[in-house]
Amino acid sequence: MKRHHAEHRPSYSAEQRSRDYAITFGSEEGQRVLKDLIRQTSMMEPVFSDDHTSLQTAAFRDGMRNVTLLILNQLGTDTDALQTLMTEADNHE
Questions:
Q1: Residues 47-79: tens digit of each pLDDT
Q2: Domain residue extents for the chain
Q3: 62 and 12 in contact (C-beta within 8 Å)?
Q4: How many other CB atoms are found less than 10 A from the CB of residue 73?
Q5: In a 3-state reduction of DSSP, which class is residue 36?
Q6: Contact between 41 and 63 (Cβ < 8 Å)
C-alpha cells in the first residue's frame, strides 16, 4: 500500500468531524454503541484500584477510557449529559 505524505491527504475539517460524530452517535443505534463503549472502556471504574494495579494495567485502562472521552468531547457532552449516559450504561449491563 502506498503511503501518502501529509500534504497530499484530503483535509478533514473540525466542522466535518463534528458533523460525522453527531451523525454516527446521534441515532438510537449510535447511543447504544456509545453506552456500550462507556461500559466496555471502564468509564465508571477507577484506573487504579485496590488490587495493586500495575502501571502498565493502569495505563492500558486509562488509554481505553481516553478513547471514550475523546468521543464524548467531540460530541460536546456536558457533565449532566455524561452523568445520564453513565447511569443509563450502568443500568443496561
A1: 777 667 788 888 888 999 999 999 999 999 988
A2: 13-45+54-91
A3: no
A4: 11
A5: helix
A6: no
**Smallest Cα–Cα separation from 93: which of 44, 21, 28?**
44
Euclidean distance between CA atoms 57 and 22, whole angstroms: 32
d(CA 21, CA 19): 6
Give the Cα separation of 35 and 43 in Å (integer): 10
What is the pTM assigned to this prediction?
0.74
Q: Which residues contact 18 (CB under 8 A, 6 or more apart)?
A: 74, 76
Cβ atoms 74, 18 nearer than 8 A = yes
Euclidean distance between CA atoms 14 and 31, whole angstroms: 21
